[in-house]
Amino acid sequence: MRIRVSGKDIDIGEALQTHVNQELTESTSKYAGRPTDATVTFSRDGHSHHCEIFVHLSTGLTAQANGAATEIYAAFEQARERMAKQLRRHKRRLKDHHKERPNPVDTVPAGSFVLAPFDEDDSHDDEEHVNGEAGPTIIAETELRVPSLSVGEAVMQMELAHAPVLVFRNEKGGAINVVYRREDGNIGWIDPRIESGGAPQSQG
């Protein structure tokens, strides 16, 4: 497995890189089956060190975990343990997923935008917020990949990535769907179905 270790405004020594490679390889080989590559990023906020791990699996799914501690090694260990817990939790489902998918998950490109909230006290008209056009100001723009998954796979991907929401292309029908975490602890599923001119329906 290829592992890329980097730091944001922080020096990463050779000893830490060796430690990360050894420990993360051991953890993922136990639970993930066939991980292809991983990225480990360290950063610092005051006296706290942060570690973010992404592990990309051969079938196209991605697992994510974060850790924070005063010591950089402890931050990595916390993130590594959380990663191992997620992979252990989904071990059987990952094996089934790998058997059912000899080829990686297909993805399509999409734009991702960060928008500024409207300021009710702002004296300027909305039309002046975005190059003379109505709408909120775009703070940042990035590109992401929207995966083609079944609903079950989408829920697993959301849980592996520890994300509150996941946008995906439903393999059954090809429509863009959304799964998300509900406040009651259940998972919501939005499946737009335009039938006979009717309105989109939400399931979950």
Radius of gyration: 20 Å
- State the share of residues found in helices, binned by percent: 25-40%
Distance between the termini: 37 Å
Sheet bearing the most strands, described? 6 strands, mixed
Q: Quote the CATH topology of the largest domain.
A: SHC Adaptor Protein
Domain Sigma 54 modulation/S30EA ribosomal protein C-terminal: 135-188
Protein name: Ribosome hibernation promoting factor
Subcellular location: Cytoplasm
Function: Required for dimerization of active 70S ribosomes into 100S ribosomes in stationary phase; 100S ribosomes are translationally inactive and sometimes present during exponential growth.
Show the helix and strand layout.
Blueprint: E1 2-7, H1 14-31, E2 35-45, E3 48-57, E4 62-69, H2 72-89, H3 91-100, E5 107-115, E6 138-149, H4 151-160, E7 165-170, E8 176-181, E9 187-191, E10 201-203
Parallel strand pairs: 1-2, 6-7
Antiparallel strand pairs: 2-3, 3-4, 5-6, 7-8, 8-9, 9-10
Helix pairs in contact: 1-2
